Amino acid sequence: MAYHTLRQEYMLMPPVTRAYTTVCLLTSIAVQLDVVSPFQLYFNPLLITQKFEIWRLLTPFFFFGTFSFNFLFNMIFTYRYCRMLEEGSFRGRTADFVYMFIFGCITTVICAWFVNLLFLGHSLTTMFVYIWARRNPYVRMNFFGLLPFRAPYLPWVLVAFSVLLGNSVLVDILGIAIGHLYFFLEDVFPNQPGGRRLLATPRLLYLHILTYFVLNVVTSFDLRHF
């Protein structure tokens, strides 16, 4: 009974959030069990360009560390704000959400090429938080029940929390900068005089997403009837 409830809750997650968080969790499990090493996953421009280890363009976004408080904290934030974006301002716009993911990953990789960052998932999560916060400016929040504030201040509260923990704030600042760039190009600039939408989702991506959902519907129908 518990298994069916858990499976049902899992399948109720929006598809992009479900796919990303699942890959992140499986990556950490694989590292925890010594199936793969973090040294095979981290971002290294030299190994990418000289050894053609192209997978390092993606794997740094999937690893949040082995099981620990830091891992749990990051995964909760990733799941929460990724899901709230997908079910909120991106509801019914899966292709646009995937395109936001692509924009965030490409921009983060370009920036990481010039700074010393090994794993990039935290910056992507901070980008999610920033975009959600700017699109929900009147939501009231509190941090561990102690500090009340409005949503737009959340990314900066997380920066302060990183400072208190003694962590580097570079990944947080990078995520905020990329989130602000996306928010400006998608939400601000198109509404300015003479502005236009510069991040219009390619039609090909809409076609791929539509094909994916059609295949899912057909597969579900077949499974129920055979």
Order of neighbouring strands in the sheet with most strands:
1-2
Low-confidence stretches: 218-226
How many separate domains? 1
CATH class: Mainly Alpha
Radius of gyration: 19 Å
Element-by-element helix/strand order: HHHHHHEEHHH
Largest sheet: 2 strands, antiparallel
What's the total helix number? 9
- Give the distance, in angstroms, between the N- and C-terminal Cα atoms: 23 Å
Label the structural class: mainly alpha
> In one word, what is the shape?
globular
Percent strand equals under 5%
How many strand elements?
Answer: 2
Provide the CATH architecture.
Up-down Bundle
Oligomeric composition of the shown chains:
single chain
Helix content: 55-70%
The fold-level CATH name is Rhomboid-like fold
What does this structure look like?
It is a multi-pass membrane protein. May be involved in the degradation of misfolded endoplasmic reticulum (ER) luminal proteins. The protein is mainly alpha-helical and 226 residues long. It has a single domain (1-201), classed as Rhomboid-like fold. Helix content is 63%, strand content 4%. It has helices at residues 2-12, 15-32, 45-50, 69-87, 94-112, 121-135, 154-165, 170-188, 203-225; strands at 140-143, 147-150. A two-stranded antiparallel sheet has the order 1-2. Helix 5 crosses helix 8 and helix 5 packs across helix 9 (203-225). The protein starts with a helix and ends with a helix. The model is unreliable at 218-226 (pLDDT under 50).
